[in-house]
Request: fold
Amino acid sequence: MVIIDGHEEANIIFSNHVEEYLDHNKGYLYIDNGGGSIELILFAKGKVVASDSFRIGTVRIIQGIDDKKDWTAIKGWIKEKIKPYKNLAAIGSGGNINKIFRFARKSEGKPISYEKLRKIQAFIEKYSYNDRIKILRLRPDRADVILPAINVYLSILDWAGIKKMYVPQIGLADGIIHILYDQYKNSKVSKRIEC
Reply:
């Protein structure tokens, strides 16, 4: 099994060329909320301004091994890095936010508001773990982490003062595919040059 660190994961996610879909006049906070880490990437004027990885994720939270100092570090990073930027929007990535987006019943390309996330949180909290599987039809490995995931997104949006989040349905797997494709394409070009 290959394990990648959070910074490498952030770079892989960025390789999705998400910046091509952004309004270059606006700023965005990209949030990838995984099982073992959270990656944050701040975009402004179509470029990465700052990025970092934090050892908090939904699996760590449900196992009770998330550390308060890591939460403090995320909050501090957000407050410091976004200070020069106004009216940021968020971009959410990961399996949990994709599922949450489906609960929101939004058209692709439309953002989820902070208030809508709160409503989805309240809706899911009504169901036990087993009912989340039986009634909400969540996979067992999603039913246990979806509420911690919503809490992470809500906390980050709250700290950043962000009111809406876009969910472009991309993530780590898509980034790996882009990297492999780019490597394949570059190897074909170099072979042509050698001939």
User: Anything to note?
Assistant: Residues 6-184 form a domain with the Nucleotidyltransferase; domain 5 fold (CATH 3.30.420.150).
